Amino acid sequence: MARVRLENVTKRYGEETAVDDVSLEVKDGEFVTFVGPSGCGKSTTMETVAGLTPPTEGRVYIGDDDVTGLAPKDRGVAMVFQNIALFPHMDVYENISFGLRLRKYDDEEVRRRVEQAADIVQLEGMLDRMPAEMSGGQQQRVGIARAIVRNPDVFLMDEPLANLDAKLRVHMRTELQRLHRELEATVIYVTHDQAEAMTMSNRIAVLNDGKLQQIAPPLVCYNEPTNLFVAGFIGSPSMNFAEGELVEDGVETPNFDVELDPAAVPKVSVGDAVTVGVRPEDVHLAENADSLAQPSAPIAARSDVIEPMGDEVFVYLLLAEGAERSMEKDPSSSADQLLMSVTPDTKIEAEQDVDVVLDRSKIHLFETATGDALVHDITGRSGQDPGTAATEADD
Ligand code: ADP
After folding, report:
1. Taking a C-beta distance cutoff of 8 angstroms, is the pair 189, 172 a contact?
2. What is the pLDDT of residues 148-169, one digit of tens each?
3. Which of 67, 135, 177, 266 minimizes the number of CB atoms within 10 Å of its CB?
């Protein structure tokens, strides 16, 4: 296995910049997921590693070698795509071994590798099946086995589970984690599904508009997002945001204020526009404020829609008097709404007046103008610089 390094990789298609000056390193044996909305440049970035797309600028290294000008077959990478094209007239054994036979490996070596790969992806006993006789998940495992037998330095996987149904996706997620562990493989994985990114990866690389926003372990992206984009993209349902202004003793937003010492917030000063971010699970009923070390002052709200999810309940709160219900909209985009997540035993009904508090140790503050994170805890205890916390922290 080998590490992969991108150095200032840019890819332009005419006027459009698909990948914008991306530099990152995937360590030997690491599972790194590229995640972001559709069109953000995930696939193109991976294609520059695969050799399918030459970068307009920048270099790509695998191990210590500069592979920027090498053909895909000379890079030691194996790819698994969303649409695994199996040969319909070949059985599983022939499909998995196709590349090896093409490269004229001797029969015994081919058999050894195919059996080992089939064992890893749990396809033993199915080697003489035809693709048409297999489920989507089994076919996907054939595709993965075909990558394994090549003994690559790096696995590149582009949305390999996207065509599977939800249950199978969850199952394959655990299989891929096991595969990664057993092979100690270097994996670059592309997905728009943040659940996949959060559960499988050592680190996730969040991309937007071709630019790398943050590369960090999943929980660091969740707890210490580097900017508004990552904060809103990672986590489901999304973080609540409220735009406001830094004042002498805190932040004022249209519907609530939070207390803090402006001197403890780097980069901005009183009068600057800041955005408060708080995740639904960090909004609590005021009657439960005792469990919090540093709750905010109570915020008057009215419950609107209640969504019981089984293990948690989402409560859509309207903050402003006369605020319109607008459930089609993302609540995080409206200053008049706040989404709260509570435990199923919480007694709350629709259209009830409630006071809520925010856990101040979990309130994020962003500079509105740039979107950059300022602090991830407004109690003034942490004293960390979000910039450094966001990029490293995986060692
Ligand atoms: P993602 O994988 O995140 O959905 P892509 O890497 O496929 O995004 O695409 C990034 C951007 O580059 C998109 O706007 C897409 O339209 C553009 N793009 C990708 N491939 C090509 C191409 N071959 N020709 C022109 N534009 C392309």
Report:
1. no
2. 999 899 999 999 888 888 888 8
3. 135
